[in-house]
Design a protein that fits this description.
Layout: H1 18-26, H2 30-46, E1 79-81, E2 83-86, E3 89-97, H3 100-103, E4 111-114, H4 120-127, E5 131-133, H5 138-141, E6 147-151, E7 156-160
Parallel strand pairs: 3-4
Antiparallel strand pairs: 1-7, 2-5, 3-6, 6-7
Length: about 170
Protein backbone atom coordinates (compact mmCIF):
# COMPACT_ATOMS: atom_id res chain seq x y z
CA UNK A 1 0.00 0.00 0.00
CA UNK A 2 2.95 2.31 0.61
CA UNK A 3 4.43 1.68 -2.84
CA UNK A 4 1.03 2.46 -4.39
CA UNK A 5 0.80 5.75 -2.47
CA UNK A 6 -2.19 4.67 -0.40
CA UNK A 7 -0.33 4.78 2.93
CA UNK A 8 2.48 7.21 3.83
CA UNK A 9 4.23 4.62 6.06
CA UNK A 10 3.91 0.88 6.76
CA UNK A 11 3.34 1.21 10.52
CA UNK A 12 0.18 3.24 9.97
CA UNK A 13 -1.54 0.00 8.95
CA UNK A 14 -1.76 -0.98 12.64
CA UNK A 15 -3.99 2.03 13.30
CA UNK A 16 -6.59 1.23 10.63
CA UNK A 17 -9.78 -0.78 10.99
CA UNK A 18 -10.47 -3.72 8.71
CA UNK A 19 -13.07 -1.68 6.80
CA UNK A 20 -10.65 1.24 6.41
CA UNK A 21 -8.01 -1.09 4.95
CA UNK A 22 -10.56 -2.39 2.45
CA UNK A 23 -11.54 1.18 1.53
CA UNK A 24 -7.88 2.13 1.01
CA UNK A 25 -7.43 -0.83 -1.32
CA UNK A 26 -10.15 0.68 -3.51
CA UNK A 27 -9.25 4.39 -3.34
CA UNK A 28 -6.95 6.95 -1.72
CA UNK A 29 -8.55 8.66 1.27
CA UNK A 30 -6.89 11.51 3.19
CA UNK A 31 -9.67 11.26 5.81
CA UNK A 32 -8.79 7.65 6.62
CA UNK A 33 -5.08 8.52 6.82
CA UNK A 34 -5.91 11.45 9.11
CA UNK A 35 -7.93 9.21 11.47
CA UNK A 36 -5.10 6.65 11.54
CA UNK A 37 -2.55 9.36 12.35
CA UNK A 38 -4.77 10.59 15.19
CA UNK A 39 -5.00 7.04 16.62
CA UNK A 40 -1.22 6.72 16.38
CA UNK A 41 -0.76 9.97 18.36
CA UNK A 42 -3.24 8.82 21.01
CA UNK A 43 -1.55 5.40 21.20
CA UNK A 44 1.86 6.96 21.92
CA UNK A 45 0.29 8.72 24.92
CA UNK A 46 -1.89 5.83 26.12
CA UNK A 47 0.88 3.22 26.03
CA UNK A 48 2.51 4.99 28.97
CA UNK A 49 -0.58 4.69 31.18
CA UNK A 50 -0.76 1.88 33.70
CA UNK A 51 -4.07 0.36 34.72
CA UNK A 52 -5.07 -1.89 37.62
CA UNK A 53 -5.24 -5.60 36.82
CA UNK A 54 -8.88 -5.89 37.79
CA UNK A 55 -11.24 -3.05 37.08
CA UNK A 56 -14.93 -2.36 37.03
CA UNK A 57 -16.53 0.27 34.81
CA UNK A 58 -14.47 2.74 32.82
CA UNK A 59 -10.75 2.05 33.37
CA UNK A 60 -8.81 4.86 35.04
CA UNK A 61 -5.00 5.00 34.88
CA UNK A 62 -3.05 4.48 38.07
CA UNK A 63 -1.35 7.72 39.12
CA UNK A 64 2.23 6.53 38.90
CA UNK A 65 3.58 9.76 40.42
CA UNK A 66 2.39 8.54 43.82
CA UNK A 67 4.26 5.28 43.29
CA UNK A 68 7.85 6.49 42.97
CA UNK A 69 10.68 4.16 43.88
CA UNK A 70 11.41 6.44 46.84
CA UNK A 71 8.06 5.41 48.36
CA UNK A 72 9.40 1.93 49.10
CA UNK A 73 12.08 1.28 51.66
CA UNK A 74 14.82 -1.15 50.70
CA UNK A 75 14.13 -4.59 52.15
CA UNK A 76 17.13 -6.91 51.87
CA UNK A 77 15.19 -10.18 51.89
CA UNK A 78 12.08 -8.97 50.04
CA UNK A 79 9.82 -11.75 48.75
CA UNK A 80 6.84 -11.10 46.51
CA UNK A 81 4.14 -13.60 45.54
CA UNK A 82 2.48 -13.46 42.15
CA UNK A 83 0.79 -15.80 39.71
CA UNK A 84 3.00 -18.60 38.35
CA UNK A 85 2.59 -18.99 34.59
CA UNK A 86 5.68 -20.94 33.50
CA UNK A 87 7.41 -23.39 35.83
CA UNK A 88 11.07 -23.49 36.68
CA UNK A 89 13.41 -21.99 39.25
CA UNK A 90 16.37 -19.77 38.53
CA UNK A 91 18.69 -17.33 40.26
CA UNK A 92 20.30 -14.38 38.57
CA UNK A 93 20.72 -10.65 38.41
CA UNK A 94 17.63 -8.54 37.87
CA UNK A 95 17.11 -6.20 34.94
CA UNK A 96 14.33 -3.74 35.80
CA UNK A 97 12.93 -2.22 32.62
CA UNK A 98 10.13 0.34 32.51
CA UNK A 99 10.54 0.94 28.77
CA UNK A 100 11.40 -1.05 25.67
CA UNK A 101 14.65 0.91 25.45
CA UNK A 102 15.63 -0.24 28.96
CA UNK A 103 14.66 -3.82 28.10
CA UNK A 104 17.03 -3.73 25.12
CA UNK A 105 19.92 -3.77 27.63
CA UNK A 106 18.87 -7.23 28.92
CA UNK A 107 21.87 -9.57 29.03
CA UNK A 108 21.86 -13.37 28.82
CA UNK A 109 21.12 -14.85 32.25
CA UNK A 110 19.43 -11.73 33.62
CA UNK A 111 15.90 -11.90 34.98
CA UNK A 112 13.58 -9.33 33.42
CA UNK A 113 11.33 -7.41 35.81
CA UNK A 114 8.90 -5.14 33.99
CA UNK A 115 5.43 -3.69 34.35
CA UNK A 116 3.90 -5.53 31.42
CA UNK A 117 4.83 -7.65 28.43
CA UNK A 118 2.89 -8.70 25.37
CA UNK A 119 2.52 -12.49 25.48
CA UNK A 120 5.39 -12.78 27.97
CA UNK A 121 3.87 -15.88 29.56
CA UNK A 122 3.56 -17.63 26.19
CA UNK A 123 7.14 -16.81 25.19
CA UNK A 124 8.45 -17.97 28.59
CA UNK A 125 6.54 -21.24 28.35
CA UNK A 126 7.73 -21.92 24.79
CA UNK A 127 11.37 -21.29 25.72
CA UNK A 128 11.10 -23.19 29.02
CA UNK A 129 11.82 -20.12 31.13
CA UNK A 130 10.22 -19.53 34.53
CA UNK A 131 7.70 -16.69 34.58
CA UNK A 132 5.61 -15.03 37.28
CA UNK A 133 3.02 -12.31 36.63
CA UNK A 134 0.97 -10.08 38.90
CA UNK A 135 3.86 -8.87 41.08
CA UNK A 136 2.36 -5.45 41.65
CA UNK A 137 5.02 -2.85 42.43
CA UNK A 138 7.97 -5.14 41.58
CA UNK A 139 9.51 -2.56 39.23
CA UNK A 140 9.62 -0.12 42.13
CA UNK A 141 10.80 -2.54 44.83
CA UNK A 142 13.59 -4.27 42.88
CA UNK A 143 16.55 -2.65 41.17
CA UNK A 144 18.72 -3.63 38.23
CA UNK A 145 21.63 -5.62 39.63
CA UNK A 146 19.71 -7.15 42.55
CA UNK A 147 20.45 -10.84 42.89
CA UNK A 148 17.09 -12.63 42.83
CA UNK A 149 15.40 -16.01 42.91
CA UNK A 150 12.51 -16.53 40.49
CA UNK A 151 10.32 -19.54 41.24
CA UNK A 152 7.85 -20.08 38.41
CA UNK A 153 6.17 -22.98 40.20
CA UNK A 154 5.37 -21.18 43.46
CA UNK A 155 5.00 -17.70 41.91
CA UNK A 156 7.80 -16.15 43.98
CA UNK A 157 10.32 -13.41 43.25
CA UNK A 158 12.82 -12.99 46.10
CA UNK A 159 15.79 -10.69 46.61
CA UNK A 160 18.82 -12.68 47.74
CA UNK A 161 22.15 -11.62 49.22
CA UNK A 162 24.73 -10.84 46.55
CA UNK A 163 26.81 -13.96 45.84
CA UNK A 164 30.39 -14.06 47.05
CA UNK A 165 32.84 -13.10 44.33
CA UNK A 166 35.61 -15.67 43.88
CA UNK A 167 38.95 -13.92 43.73
CA UNK A 168 42.17 -15.59 42.67
CA UNK A 169 44.69 -14.52 45.30
CA UNK A 170 48.26 -15.50 44.58
Amino acid sequence: MVSEGRLPEEDLLFFLTYDEINDLLETRSPNIISRANQRKRVFSIMENYKFPEIMKGTPKPINDEDESADTYEFIADLTMKGIPVSQGVTKGYARVAATLEEASHLKPGEILITYSTDIGAVVSREYGLPCVVGLQGATKRFRTGDYVLLDGKKGILQRLPQPEQNSDET
